[in-house]
Every structure is written in C-alpha cells, then in structure tokens.
C-alpha cells in the first residue's frame, strides 16, 4: 500500500515532465517542424513508423484483453485445457504480418538513403551549386567557401530553395554536424571526409548543434545556418569577398591596431590573418558570441578577458590585463566589421 501511495504522489510530477518534453524552447531547432526536403522525409518516415507501432500496440493489447476476458478460468473449473501442438494458420499469420510491416518501412527507407546520399551538384543549377567545406574544432565551426575564396566562422549562409553541398572534416576530435530543422546529422571525423547536402525551403535563421560529445564545452558548440534569398546571398558573398574598409571612427581605427597586435594571429578579417580561430569579417552581424552568449559589449569584454570562464576547454588565449582604453577601442573595431552594410 505504501508503494502505491508513493507512486501516486509522483504521478502529477511525472505527467508535468512528460508534457514539458513537448515544449519548443527555440524556433528552428527541432526535427518536428521540418523546413527542408531532407527533414520533411525524416519527419514523414518518423510518422510512418509511429503509426505502424501504434497499430501493432493497439492490435496486440486488444487481442490480449479479449483473450483475458473470454478464456479466463471460471469458478470451480479445475479441468486442464486441451493441449495442442500448434496452429499452422496462426503461425503463418504472425510471420507474414511482420514481414509486410517491415517491407512498408524498408521501401521508403532504402529509397530515402539514396536520396540523402546524392551529393552531386543540382543539375538545374550546375556550376552555381554552393559547396561549403565544414571543419569542426573544439568548440566552434569553420566554414570555407573555397569557390568564392573566403572563410566564415560560427555562421554559415546558404541560398533558399537550392541544394547546398557540405564537405565535412574535423580538426581535433570527433564532432557531428546537425541542423535539426533541415536534415539529419553526420559525423566529422579526423582524417576522414564525409559529404552531405541540405536545402532550406524558406528564409530564416536555423540553429545548428554538435551532436557528438567532444569535450567539456560540447553543449555550447552551437552555430547558425542563415538562409537568404539568392540576391541577398549573392550580396553577402560580395561583401565577404571585398576588402575590409578602413574604419571611419578614430576609436575603431585605434581598435584595428589593437586587433592587429593581439588578435590577427588567430582570427581572419577580410582575407588577412589566420584561421586558427573563427573568421570575424562579419562579426557585427552575429547574434551570439562563443556560440551562445548574446552579442553585446559586456559579454564581448568578458569573453576577451577570460574565455575559459565562459567556455571551458576552448583554445582562445585570455587577455585579462588589456587596459580599458584598448578594450573599448577593440570592441569598437569589432562592431565595425559589418560586410552587409559596408
């Protein structure tokens, strides 16, 4: 009796947890709201599997309860039931039905695998098909637009309604590239090249995740996939290809000197610098810093002074002793890196 009372006490909490699992905290971060052909195929097959499992469960429990009610032992009935060796018709039935159900699942699964594995350029677009090289680092993402001649970090831009091909690599450990609203996940493995493609049906900002445990800050290894109309995407590409203009404000000009003295060894801007860390050519338009912090001056200063405190295990050096004047100037310069407005 005590056990049942304890169970009833926890029932409301269990139901609440069950309901909360269905809450959508962020837009464009769920496979249950597909926004592309890949994710739509995955969602449709998920529903197909769910319907088949639900049908099997209902039929099995219905038969179970019917037999339980119809053939239960009556009071005073002590006879041994008739013993039978088997029933050929039943055995054939419960063998054939699972084969049929598995075939229903297998046909779309196999055809879908060929569709997902087709990483050839779209014949309708041809040489204009966007191809992006993705490299996973602890704990950030590098996006190389090799045909266009530039590198982006933490945010990857694609044109809407077009098949985009991704070539996946890893710099250090195993990662997994995943944009839930647009498609499935695929591992990035050191020394191995994998390929996949994605397509967005509508413009928007789609949240991406690393789906493979890769270190202490794995949970913070997020990125954004931004889908634009083709003319807007072309304008963004032009801005990324262009040389970064000299800042007009004196404070930002001073900040550029600070950047070149302290940061350019790891971060590329407009083709200058290194790709050891994320490229910063369009930093002013980023929504977040370090993959998860709101892009404001306070968080940016905290990140520069002590990145380890905000993202454990990352490789960015700290600058705790940078004076306030240089810090203000550096932030002003980073705020001027806006290829879209420039």
UniProtKB/TrEMBL annotation:
Q: How is the cofactor bound?
A: Binds a copper A center.
How does this protein lie in the membrane?
Multi-pass membrane protein
Domain Cytochrome c span(s) in chain numbering: 250-338
Q: Which domain of life is it from?
A: Bacteria
Regions crossing the membrane:
49-71, 92-116
GO cellular component, as recorded = plasma membrane
User: Can you say where in the cell this protein is located?
Assistant: Cell membrane; Membrane
What does the record give as cofactor? Cu cation
Which EC number(s) are documented for this chain?
A: 7.1.1.9
**Domain Cytochrome oxidase subunit II copper A binding residues, every copy:** 127-239
Domain Cytochrome oxidase subunit II transmembrane region profile per the UniProt entry, residue ranges: 23-120
Catalyses which reaction(s): 4 Fe(II)-[cytochrome c] + O2 + 8 H(+)(in) = 4 Fe(III)-[cytochrome c] + 2 H2O + 4 H(+)(out)
For this UniProt entry, the molecular function terms from Gene Ontology, in alphabetical order, are: copper ion binding; cytochrome-c oxidase activity; heme binding; oxidoreductase activity
Function description? Subunits I and II form the functional core of the enzyme complex. Electrons originating in cytochrome c are transferred via heme a and Cu(A) to the binuclear center formed by heme a3 and Cu(B).
Family from the record: Belongs to the cytochrome c oxidase subunit 2 family.
The protein's name: Cytochrome c oxidase subunit 2
* Organism in which the protein naturally occurs: Halalkalibacter okhensis
Q: What is the lineage of its organism?
A: Bacteria, Bacillati, Bacillota, Bacilli, Bacillales
């Amino acid at each position: 009796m005590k056990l049942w009372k304890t169970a009833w006490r926890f029932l409301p909490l269990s139901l609440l947890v069950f309901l909360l699992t269905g809450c959508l905290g962020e837009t464009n971060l769920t496979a249950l709201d597909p926004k592309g052909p890949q994710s739509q195929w995955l969602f449709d097959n998920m529903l197909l599997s769910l319907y088949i499992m639900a049908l099997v469960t209902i039929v099995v429990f219905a038969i179970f309860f019917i037999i339980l009610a119809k053939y239960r032992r009556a009071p005073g009935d002590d006879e041994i039931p008739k013993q039978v060796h088997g029933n050929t018709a039943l055995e054939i039935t419960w063998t054939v039905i699972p084969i049929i159900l598995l075939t229903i699942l297998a046909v779309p699964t196999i055809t879908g695998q060929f569709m997902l594995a087709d990483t050839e350029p779209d014949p309708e677009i041809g040489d204009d098909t966007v191809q992006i090289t993705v490299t996973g680092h602890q704990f950030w993402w590098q996006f190389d637009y090799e045909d266009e001649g530039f590198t982006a970090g933490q945010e990857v831009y694609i044109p809407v309604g077009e098949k985009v091909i991704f070539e996946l690599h890893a710099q250090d450990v195993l990662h997994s590239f995943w944009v839930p609203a647009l498609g499935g996940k695929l591992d990035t493995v050191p020394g191995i090249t994998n390929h996949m493609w994605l397509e967005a049906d509508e413009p928007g900002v789609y949240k991406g995740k690393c789906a493979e445990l890769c270190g202490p800050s794995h949970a913070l290894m997020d990125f954004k996939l931004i889908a634009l109309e083709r003319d807007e995407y072309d304008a963004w590409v032009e801005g990324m290809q262009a040389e970064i203009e000299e800042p007009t404000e004196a404070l930002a000009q001073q900040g550029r000197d600070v950047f070149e003295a302290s940061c350019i060894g790891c971060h590329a801007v407009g083709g200058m610098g290194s790709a050891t860390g994320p490229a910063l050519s369009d930093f002013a338009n980023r929504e977040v810093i370090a993959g998860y912090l709101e892009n404001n001056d306070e968080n940016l200063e905290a990140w520069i002074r002590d990145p380890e405190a905000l993202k454990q295990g990352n490789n960015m050096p700290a600058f705790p002793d940078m004076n306030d004047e240089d810090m203000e100037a550096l932030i002003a310069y980073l705020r001027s890196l806006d290829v879209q407005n420039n």
